[in-house]
Specification:
Elements: E1 5-10, H1 14-26, E2 30-36, H2 42-46, E3 51-53, H3 57-60, E4 67-70, H4 77-86, E5 90-94, H5 101-114, E6 118-121, H6 128-138, E7 145-153, H7 174-177, H8 179-190, E8 195-201, E9 212-219, E10 222-229, E11 239-243, E12 246-250, H9 256-263, E13 280-286, E14 289-295, H10 303-315, H11 323-342, E15 346-347
Parallel strand pairs: 1-2, 1-4, 2-3, 4-5, 5-6, 7-10
Antiparallel strand pairs: 7-11, 8-9, 8-15, 9-10, 11-12, 12-13, 13-14
Helix pairs in contact: 4-5, 5-11, 8-11
């Protein structure tokens, strides 16, 4: 019989409701038994069997809990993750990992000392478009890659009221919200950069946070450009790859988020697939063969993240999202802030 992992969610906002609870509930070997909600009991409406508590410390002292998933405001991640690890719990932290690389290193030390699993929810490694891009690069379908562009656009031309994300807390702003997705994907594909350059701006009227950024990561003979902002009413290209032998262009975002928010998770055949009109365009010539046309987008599946967490906790399988990788992403965010302040490129260190 498979071991069941008793799981607690700390926080039940958008991330907890749509990105964590549905997949934990759908996995036959996870038991979602406790949820921390300070101001409501939304989780119990959706999952009547859970116990709702107000204080996350009630999770820490619960000896039944094996795994804690942290979905709180970013500036609380370190304190809560450290407390859970010290209490002997495996931990998954919603991105961003933490606010500083020092905090990331300290959490990694605690997890190693306690022999516990520590991971960060970088779900967009399982976006179908990213999986497709990864295959194109691995198979050198563009020859030697020389430029990689990744754009994650949103449109909200006003300041969202009563949102901690709109306040100048540590870890707030788009650089910590969308930045970890784009940076993590770049680190997965290319490793740590040689230099980091960032243009960071607050473009909406009254904005107190960074709400637009462009980050350029420099590698040997490769330029990586990462963009996000709140004022893109007409989204730009999601991925653009340029190589010595060809180009790949992909529009539109992976459909899983919209599906989760509209219909929930159903684990059915066809989950995470894109309609043909959203497939990317490949124009290349490799080994004497020329090709120009659409290529099918890989099916995305966020559930694979939780499958890996289960295997890591119960069988010691290698983590798909290692905390050391999340530390590198956090360090690049710090260097982007330094670069934006100095208005110059800075070396990775």
């Amino acid at each position: 019989m498979s071991k069941k992992i008793n799981t607690a969610l700390i926080g039940f906002g958008m991330s907890g409701e749509f990105f964590h609870a549905p997949f934990i509930d759908a996995h036959p070997d996870f038991n979602l038994i406790k949820v921390v909600e300070r101001h409501s009991a939304r989780s119990k409406e959706l999952y009547p069997y859970v116990k709702v508590v107000k204080d996350y410390k009630e999770v820490l002292i619960d000896e039944e809990i094996d795994l804690v998933v942290i979905n709180t405001p970013n500036y609380l991640h370190y304190e809560m993750a450290a407390g859970a690890l010290e209490a002997g719990k495996h931990v998954v932290v919603e991105k961003p990992f933490v606010c500083t690389s020092r905090e990331a290193a300290l959490l990694i030390e605690i997890a190693k000392r306690k022999n516990l699993v520590l991971s960060v929810f970088q779900n967009r490694r399982w976006d179908g478009d990213f999986l497709t891009v990864k295959k194109i690069i691995e198979n050198r379908l563009l020859g030697r890659l020389v430029e990689f562009r990744s754009h994650f656009d949103r449109y909200r031309n006003y300041i969202k009221p009563n949102s901690w994300k709109e306040q100048p807390h540590p870890g707030s702003g788009l650089l910590y919200d969308i930045g970890p997705h784009l940076i993590d994907q770049a680190v997965v594909l290319f490793g740590k950069p040689e230099t980091v350059y960032a243009d960071l701006r607050s473009l909406r009227e009254g904005s107190k946070i960074i709400d637009n950024f462009e980050i350029i990561l420099s590698y040997d003979k490769l330029k990586v450009v990462l963009n996000s902002g709140f004022l893109y009413k007409q989204p730009l290209v999601r991925f653009a790859l340029f190589g010595t032998e060809g180009t790949f262009i992909k529009n539109g975002l992976d459909p899983q988020e919209d599906t989760l928010k509209t219909f929930g998770y159903n684990n059915s055949t066809g989950w995470g697939t894109e309609p043909e009109e959203m497939w990317g365009e490949l124009n290349t010539g490799v080994n004497g063969l020329n090709f120009k046309g659409k290529i099918e987008t890989e099916a995305g599946c966020y559930q694979k993240y939780f499958e890996n967490i289960y295997d890591a906790v119960t069988g010691g399988k290698e983590l798909a999202v290692k905390p050391e990788e999340a530390l590198a992403t956090t360090r690049i965010i710090e260097l982007a802030l330094e670069s934006g302040s100095k208005k110059m490129a800075v070396g990775y260190n």
